[in-house]
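Today's session is about reading a structure prediction critically. Students often jump straight to the picture, but the first step is always the sequence itself: look for stretches that repeat, for charged clusters, for runs of hydrophobic residues. Only then move on to the predicted structure, which in these notes is written as discrete structure tokens rather than atom positions. Here is the chain we will use throughout the hour.
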Amino acid sequence: MQTDTINMLPSQILFGFAMLGFFALVIMEKLKPYRRFTNTIGKASFVTNTTAFLFNNVILTALRATSLFFVAQQFSSHGLLSGMGNNPIKWLFSLLLYDLAIYAWHVLSHKYEFLWRFHKVHHSDKSFNTSTGFRFHVFDLFLEILYKCLFVILIGVDANIVLVIETIQLFFIFFHHSNLTFSNEKQLSEFIITPSLHRTHHSTLRSEHDSNYGIVLAFWDKLFGTRQEVVPQKIGLDIIEADNFLQLFFLAFITERRIRKLLQIIPRGKKI
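Below is the predicted structure for this chain, in token form.
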């Protein structure tokens, strides 16, 4: 019990730093937002997203941290990087491979309908703000945990490195969802994922939001040809909307294909 408490302490401290970053970004985007959404949309987005956090993240953050930490502790001596000493080179390789793995998961979440039905919950936000980083379906998070555990086993990442990388990625999720713009963002976006790049990823148009899958590094989208630099005209999903947490949860079980078929059956009023 005492060992578990000691192991959980670093994750709690690191998560605390990420949350400080979250609140700092919320304040910054309130003071100088990139795009002004209506008060109704902005408030509904923030309330729904933070409710999703309370339902999902409070439960699954602990599960994700402890499960990844446990797996890393048990299997760090068996994976691809297990033969390397615990030094900055191993840390760098771990970050690169971890970021690549999450990039790949993100691509799969868009390409396969089973995964997309859960991931589209994240894209249903009609606003675009720091709290959008909380907007995930519980099953989406759970499947990602399993995927990350498999990665940790294959790569053999040290437990403490896992916690640090998870914190870095969590901060970047908050950062690139923030409703901000700043000087030199264009230059910075050549190296890391910035709000302007990720804003394209939340476009209503499928041709635009199937791009810019990176979480931390901008390199992967360049390498695999998935980078787009456009300003989306509209944010969210084109057919389905979710205005509260319950709608958000059940959104995963309604597909766009089913709704399109339904719209073909229901007669529409004639325009005069």
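Discussion point for the tutorial: Residues 1-9, 262-272 have pLDDT under 50 and may be disordered.
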